[in-house]
Amino acid sequence: MTKIVAVTNCPAGIAHTYMVAEAIEEKAKSLGYEVHVETQGASGVENKLTTEQIAEADYVILAIGKGLTDHDKERFNQKKVVELPVSEALKHIDTLFDDLEANSHVLSSSKVKLGADQETVTEGVMSYLMAGVSAALPFVIGGGLLIAIGSMMVQFGMPNTPLGKGTEPSLAWIITSIGNLGFQFMIPIMGAYIAYAISDKPAFAPAFLVTFLANDNQLLGTDSGAGFLGAIVIGLSIGYFVKYFKKLKLGKNFQSVLGYMIIPFVTLLVFGLLTYFLLGPAMAWLMSVMLSFLQNIPTSMKIVGGFIVGAMLAFDMGGPINKTAWFFSFSLLSSHVFNWYGIVGVVTLLPPMAAAIATWIKPSIFSKQERAASWSAFLVGMTVATEPAIPYALAAPLPMITANTLAGGITGALTIFLNVERTAPGIGIFDPLIGLESPWYWFYLCVAVGLALNVLFIITFKSHWLKKQAEKEAKAA
In what residue span(s) does the PTS EIIB type-2 domain sit (predicted)? Predict the structure, then answer.
């Protein structure tokens, strides 16, 4: 029996990671293979592959979006590896196992890149940025939920008394203060993990501390912190600095302390001073200009921006364009700008839910498999995971992607116009119920309008597309 082990991960560690793992398991088992899949998601490593499972495996499948650590590469050293971006795995699941021998290559742990296409998966600025975002997510989610709970406690009449001389703080104030720590440390942890993704542990502590420094506006004497722009610049700079620093040969006596003492010390000293005198103030000024622009742009321009962000979110359903718009909106949370992330909370619900509703309204334009998957797509789509819409888009790319993109753009414009705000990642359609999206009435109005438009566009465009396809086939016959 052919034995296979697999690893799945994605930048956010939420949807793709687990959906691809399930797809690989189901497909491999249907072919009679023994399969074990390790997921590296938002909850950490689950179903961790044992040394024995890896040793006995005939092939290793790596469906990854945020790369592998050096430890992972060592685990699979000299194994036959089949690799592909996690965002492509669902599209190619039916052919993934067709010719494993021809499509695999022997992995050498000494290589930085796993294969010809791996640069786009494990390397590149976007993958490093998404590694930082993935690490920051738990801070924002936990902090956002605590702030929402504290706010609801106050709304129900509980006191919001701060700590002061002779006064005890109230429970609502304590919970809110703990939640605020999530937003305070979100940016330093993002910068630290961007650097970590580039050059591993030696870069982590310096990047964390220097990014924290860049966001301490009182210490820097600036109007604001460097925000996510500072995290990006500092994380990338320290990451590449350490990457090349690690190649330095200091001789037998000092090489052993290079990684845990010399590199962190020198990096922290160099970038600490550089950030205090130059990078911090410069990035803080740039962040202030950008925030001022976003807050003061005319409504017409804001609507255009909302259309663009919404269209990008709906276009490739978890792909690079979607991730770019998501990263921009998410990164503004640390600066307490919540309306752009409000677009994310609305638009990412639309493609899978609309596809499901369209199958119920006009089942004749969908296949039996698409109709059978409709409830799953609808329920998963309610959690802002757009991936269930991918099979529908693959079956009819032009009409489905056009419908999703147009509906997403219009809904994004409406959402920003109504100033719907989302304070943290949550549970999708129920976010207003736990205080993460407001005003709740505008949120549900935008979702309703978006779904109505998306369903209408899907039925109209796909019906026309199928009619044209039938006419072409008739002419060819």
Answer: 4-102
Structure tokens that stand for 133 in this block = 């975002």
Question: DSSP class of residue 426?
Answer: -
CATH number of 3-121: 3.40.50.2300
DSSP state of 223: S
Could you tell me the residue ranges of all domains in the chain? 3-121, 125-296, 299-476
Distances (CA, A) of 296 to 289, 293, 300, 302, 460: 10, 5, 11, 9, 38
C-alpha pair distances (Å), 131 with each of 117, 137, 275? 19, 10, 22
Q: Could you tell me whether strands 59-64 and 34-41 are parallel, antiparallel, or unpaired per DSSP bridges?
A: unpaired
Identify whether 10 is a catalytic site residue: yes
Marked catalytic residue, from 10, 197, 203, 311: 10
- 2 by DSSP, 3-state: which? coil
In 3D space, the residue among 311, 327, 338 whose CA is nearest the CA of residue 232 turns out to be 327
Residue 317 Rama label (left phi>0; alpha psi -120 to 50; beta): left
Measure the CA–CA gap between 344 and 341, rounded to whole angstroms.
5
| Nearest-angstrom CA–CA distance, 335 and 417 | 20
pLDDT tens-digit readout, 52-89: 999 999 999 998 877 677 777 788 888 899 988 887 78
Q: Is the dihedral of CA 216, 222, 226, 227 positive or negative?
A: positive
- What pLDDT, on a 0 to 100 scale, did the predictor assign at position 268? 95
Please name which of 175, 469, 125, 183 lies closest in space to residue 327, comparing C-alpha atoms: 125
Q: Provide the H-helix boundaries in 332-439.
A: 339-347, 350-361, 368-372, 374-381, 390-395, 397-417
Residue 360 has, within 13 A of its CA and on its CB side, a CA count of: 13
Could you tell me the two tokens for 187? 């940016």
Contact 306, 413 (CB under 8 A): yes
Tens of pLDDT, residue by residue over 222-242, are 777 888 888 999 999 999 999
Kindly report the number of other CB atoms within 10 A of residue 471's CB atom.
Answer: 10
Angle value at C-alpha 79, between 248 and 73, nearest 5 degrees: 35
